[in-house]
Amino acid sequence: MTDLNNAGSAGHFFAFRLFPGEDLLEGIRKAVRSEGLRAGFVAAAVGSLSRACLRYAGKPDGTILEGCFETVSLSGTVEEGGEHLHASLSDPEGSVVGGHVMEGCIVRTTMEIILGELSELRFSREHCPSSTYMELAVHRRTNEKGE
């Protein structure tokens, strides 16, 4: 793995909105592809979900939640080859649940998202022998195409 420690970079941001009925992950993936993000991150997100699918810590599968949920936080890294996102959601009573974002999170009223990109870096997902998962690897970009 070619992971860099303390890799600094200039960056830029862009914003978009997802509409009722859209899948959160698919919407983010579409934005990442359309902007050609190589080293992206979620800078901010506010909105609501009518359905959430979160994988809780140490669990192999996602848990589906149905109802009205406010997005308290959404954070993580994104690039064309994948993403690693976590969310915290509150229900109508204010109880909060959080976990790894899985496919099947459906926007209820809106989802306003600001993505940032580190313009001098490139992310990839590489097998990590320690965790046994595909994990983030950070690389310096080496040419004008961002590769």
From TrEMBL:
Task: Cite the InterPro entries for this sequence.
Answer: PPC_dom (IPR005175)
Q: PROSITE patterns this protein is in? A: PPC
- CDD domains assigned: DUF296
> Where does the record place the PPC domain?
8-139
Q: Which Pfam families match?
A: PCC
What is the recorded name of this protein? Answer: PPC domain-containing protein
Source organism:
bioreactor metagenome
